[in-house]
Amino acid sequence: MRKKNIRLFSKAREKEQVRERSNPFYHTYRWRKVSKEFLSREENQFCVHCKMNHVLAPATTTDHIIPMEICDDPYDERNFQPLCMRCNRIKGASDKRMIQQHKKKRHE
């Protein structure tokens, strides 16, 4: 049984390696500082998506409501929302579709 667990772990690691690297913007000193400050505020302690479902999950990510690739100013806090990792991953998938649609409309 132990071998099975090891194999599953290995497959998870393979998937992890295939995953796209996040945008370099999110690794800049300025973004990390702005994000940390945003999440440190009392009103941003919990994930807004989880809260809507009556669950209190700690917010670990500052998310752009309108994806950064589409918005005018990536540092505009009116476009921020606190999310947990799970909700951020789910929203990230829908953001990719929104970005693709936005690019299509621009090229028409």
Highlighted features:
mainly alpha, 53% helix
Task: Quickly describe the structure.
The chain is mostly helical and 108 residues long.
Structural overview:
This protein has 108 residues and is mainly alpha-helical. It has one domain (23-107). 53% of the residues lie in helices and 7% in strands. The protein has 4 helices and 2 strands; from the N terminus they run H-H-H-E-E-H. It has helices at residues 2-18, 29-40, 48-52, 85-107; strands spanning 61-64, 80-83. The chain has a two-stranded antiparallel sheet with strand order 1-2. The longest helix has 23 residues, at 85-107. The radius of gyration is 17 Å and the shape is globular. It comes from Halosquirtibacter laminarini. Keywords: Endonuclease, Hydrolase, Nuclease. This is HNH endonuclease.
List the helices and strands and how they pair.
Elements: H1 2-18, H2 29-40, H3 48-52, E1 61-64, E2 80-83, H4 85-107
Report the sheet-strand fraction.
5-15%
Sheet with the most strands: spatial strand order: 1-2
The unreliable regions are 1-10
Mean pLDDT: 84
Number of domains: 1
Q: What separation lies between the terminal Cα atoms?
A: 55 Å
Annotation, overall tally of beta strands? 2
What is the tally of helical segments?
4
What value does the Rg take, in angstroms? Answer: 17 Å
Biggest beta-sheet profile: 2 strands, antiparallel
Would you list the SSEs in sequence order as H and E? Answer: HHHEEH
Q: Find the structural class using helix and strand composition.
A: mainly alpha
Shape: globular
Roughly what percent helix? Answer: 40-55%
